Prior knowledge:
The protein is an alpha/beta fold. Helix content is 47%, strand content 11%. The termini are far apart. The site of glutamic acid has 8 residues, from α6.
Amino acid sequence: MNNIRVRFAPSPTGYLHIGGLRTALYNYLFAQKNGGKFVLRIEDTDQTRFVEGAIENLIHSLEWAGVKYDEGVFFEDGKVVEKGDFGPYVQSKRLHIYKEYVDKLLEDGHAYYCFCSRERLESIREEQKMKGLVPKYDGFCRNVSLEDAKARVEAGEEHVVRLKLPYNRDIHFHDIVRGDIVINTNDIDDQVLLKSDGYPTYHMAVVVDDHLMGITHIVRGEEWLPSTPKHIYLYEAFGWEKPVYVHLPTVLNKERKKLSKRHGDVSVDDFRNKGYLPEGLVNYLALVGWSPEDNQELLSMEEMINKFSFERVSKTGGIFDKDKLDWVNGHYIRSSSTEKIKDMAIPYLIDRGFVDEKFSDENIDWMLMLVETVKESLSTVSEIGDKVEFIFQEEIRIDEETYNEFLSDENAQILMKAIINELSNVNELDMEYAKTFMKAIQKETGIKGKNLFMPVRVALTGSAHGPELVNVLFLLGKEKIIKRANNILK
Ligand code: GLU
């Protein structure tokens, strides 16, 4: 039996960044492919950064994206619950566990109490900076004996616990993406492991939890690569088996900068709100930093699982290309049922004031036809408002050039008259009738081909290009068509 276990360990500091979703996705794909287990753990040891509702948001975003996990925190019956044999899965509920392991490190000489004041730390930092050195703790408390230190702690002196790294030792580790890495301890700080508020730092908690939760592969963003030697040292200090490391290239924008909120959409919610389909976003994100051997670009989750391997994750940053995302998403919109896209589209149409709930409930066929008519041209569902605006407008605008090209001659006048005439004989313009309408106009006027279709299209839609005219006729209906034709009549 295989015992591959991976985890996604976000901090609940707000929303799920799409870079985070990609990390979660790669964990998921790897676990699925190898029959392993995937854990969602919440790393909330920095209480100052905790955001109310962030855990719920993380869970919902993963669920929306179809990235499923086996253990950890879930949202059920309106609350966050935990499932699995390795809990608690929220770090703030595990403080007693970290304390136990910090004590062990202290006893074994791998950690020490540090009583340095904030002011002292500030001033050595300043001094080092002035000398052009990388700021680093100067080791002032390293040699306070454990006995003395304990007495000071007992007496209530404020303290932290720091990692006691040996001087000048090379720490080696292997990363599947980055290869062999060596860092000398002289270049690493004596990391704080336990803060003065009794909470562990990320570095302490992550190692203890990954070990106790049986995590075999650490798959995370490359921003954690510089921290890894500290983690390796801790595994060694505890005598624990080390996990396999996989550091993923950062998701960058086209300018090769980290994707940040200041530069546009970064959260899963942003993309969801724009009307991206989870299949589209997830498919595209998978390709930001990874590609299957055959370079296939449109892949279902199933295909991604089958083809996924860390060996094909790139070393350099993955560029997030919104145009490519839109192309992928457009593919998924086109292959979704119109019914589904209609349901997604309604809130956007309500938002624009084009329809209300009552109307869309009562006119399902009309709504389906509306969506069907423009579905091919959408790359996100939120674009539907702009695509169908011409149907709802009281007055359409026709730019001068287009007008001159198609509507300024006698031909257009004849067509408009024929349209009004033809429609005055019918009660309702249903789809059946819409299909025969242009034939009737042709018969009546003797005008055909481009000379027939283009002026009618421009008069009714404002544009020389657009969706299927039969659909447009049906969607506009008798009154609007008459009105628009009348507007052209001189
Ligand atoms: N809590 C860290 C984060 O927010 C997790 C890093 C890791 O996966 O080790 O990204």
